[in-house]
Design brief:
The N and C termini lie far apart (110 Å). The protein is globular. Helix content is 31%, strand content 24%.
């Protein structure tokens, strides 16, 4: 027992005191051997940790690979690939994510070749929205889009992000009609009112009374939008759709779709003609500035490529032959000029978006006597669409004389800047093509808006999402805008196109 007490005493001495321990601090002697041993064990532990992580990553379901992987590559699989990251494409992505029944239930990939949007139709447009159309489908699309934009933060607001400010100017559209087209304006007015648009007709005297800066020479009638018409910032709307869709799980990829892998099934029509029905299996996404590409397997492809949408159909060998298979997607890029002018004595803050029957248009741009103006060229005078160079002589010869005639103050204007942008111009009837393609089983189309894509994007995106997920249009009946009218040779022509 006494031996046990001595042992405990000795143990207590070594546990409780360190009679020969050096005090901690800078003056304590260091052992080179101890430091080397510590470094060695630290290195071993670091290597073991790295090995454990690599082994864990290599387990089934891991994304680890012994090869370097470009983090900007799109995923290898997606449920829906949207080709074109303009405002229409991102609107479709937003509505698809909104309508999915469970979070991440639909994997949506948006492929855009230029995330700077330096040549995008969306951001180079004049930013207008109106309900003054002649076709009920166009009126309904723009009315629904205007309602969406009036409540935009209820739809596109993102938690902990700045609210969306479209800088919407509600000054309306003002159409001017000559004696020749005044009856058409009256018919359009009846159609618009029947659809629920707030529009009023003005006589020349009423027009002068409301806008005394207008020269009413040659004007027999005017149509003025009272509500949900005006202009807004195109970039803000595009970025709001993109930001919201990404926050909901949509995937963005900077790349260009350069090819498709698809299967072909031969079927016989009732007339005995052989037709090739295609089904897309995957898209080839080429990464910018490199030879690298990524095949993406998918169930559905949405062609929202705007002015480039016809090229996608050519990759599928659709549009060759004398039968239905030979019907091209009638969309091509058309260049339009926008001129920014300064006129200190020009129309004031109540200036609407004016559309003259001569084809010239103008609207106010901010404060300080700034305006934007332009017009579409005659059919035989379409400019070269291979670039975005601006023809300043076109303004001198075609635009300015008509502006100065309608608003005498514009005789003293000065051009301060200009730009050009592309329309996704539908050469068949200048209206959107929305729906499925009859010869590509799993492709949906939203293109050919011919200058109306920005203002109709919110409602058009919802309609495409309904068609994909619900199987039909449930909010607006846009069946009249399908590709079938092109096959049937039955154009839906808009009167007073701008």
């Amino acid at each position: 027992m006494s031996a046990w007490r001595r042992l405990r005493a000795v143990g207590g001495l070594f546990r409780g005191t360190r009679p020969h321990a050096w005090p901690r601090g800078r003056n304590a002697p260091l052992s080179a051997g101890t430091a080397l041993r510590n470094d060695f064990f630290k290195d071993v532990e670091t290597q073991l940790a790295a090995m454990r992580k690599k082994a864990s990553d290599a387990l089934p379901g891991s994304s680890w690979s012994p090869f370097d992987v470009n983090p900007n590559l799109p995923p290898e699989r997606a449920d829906i690939v949207i080709v074109g990251g303009g405002v229409v494409g991102w609107s479709i992505a937003y509505w698809l994510k909104l309508k999915e029944r469970v979070r991440d239930g639909v994997r949506v990939l948006v492929v855009e070749k230029d995330l700077t949007y330096s040549q995008a139709s969306t951001v180079l447009s004049a930013g207008g929205i109106r309900q003054q159309f002649s076709l009920p489908e166009n009126i309904q699309l723009s009315m629904a889009s205007a309602h969406f934009m009036r409540n935009i933060n209820e739809h596109l607001g993102v938690l902990n992000e700045d609210p969306v400010d479209l800088q919407f100017n509600h000054s309306g559209y003002l159409f001017l009609a000559s004696e020749k087209v005044a009856p058409i304006m009256e018919e359009n007015y009846s159609t618009q009112r029947k659809a629920g648009a707030e529009v009023s007709l003005l006589s020349p005297d009423q027009l002068r009374g409301k806008f005394p800066w207008i020269n009413t020479d040659g004007v027999a009638l005017a149509s003025y939008g009272l509500e949900n018409e005006g202009w807004f910032d195109p970039w803000t709307l595009l970025n709001a759709f993109r930001r919201k869709a990404i926050s909901m799980g949509a995937i963005q990829c900077c790349g260009e779709v350069t090819d498709f892998k698809y299967t072909t099934k031969r079927i016989l029509t009732g007339n005995g003609n052989e037709v090739h029905l295609r089904r897309i299996k995957s898209v080839k996404v080429q990464m910018p500035g490199t030879l690298e590409y990524q095949p993406v397997e998918c169930a559905i492809v949405v062609n929202a490529a705007g002015a480039s949408s016809a090229r996608l159909m050519e990759m599928l060998a659709v549009g060759h032959g004398d039968d239905a298979a030979g019907t091209l997607l009638p969309v091509e890029p058309r260049k339009r000029y926008v001129y920014v002018v300064h006129c200190p004595d020009g129309p004031g803050l109540d200036t609407p978006f004016v559309i003259d029957y001569s084809g010239v248009y103008f609207r106010r741009e901010g404060m300080g006597g700034n305006y934007i103006a332009g017009m579409s060229p005659e059919e035989g005078e379409e400019p070269d669409a291979s670039n975005l160079e601006v023809d300043h002589q076109f303004f001198e010869d075609k635009v300015w004389p008509k502006l100065a005639h309608r608003v005498p103050a514009f005789e003293k204007l000065k051009v301060t800047s200009s730009w050009a942008g592309f329309y996704d111009y539908n050469t068949f009837d200048q209206n959107a093509i929305i729906g499925t393609h009859p010869l590509v089983a799993n492709m949906y189309i939203a293109t050919g808006f011919s200058g109306h894509g920005l203002q109709q994007a919110p409602a058009a995106g919802r309609s495409v999402a309904e068609l994909i997920l619900d199987g039909n249009f449930t909010t607006l009946d846009l069946s009249g805008l399908s590709f079938r009218r092109i096959l049937a040779g039955e154009p839906m022509l808009e009167r007073n196109i701008v």
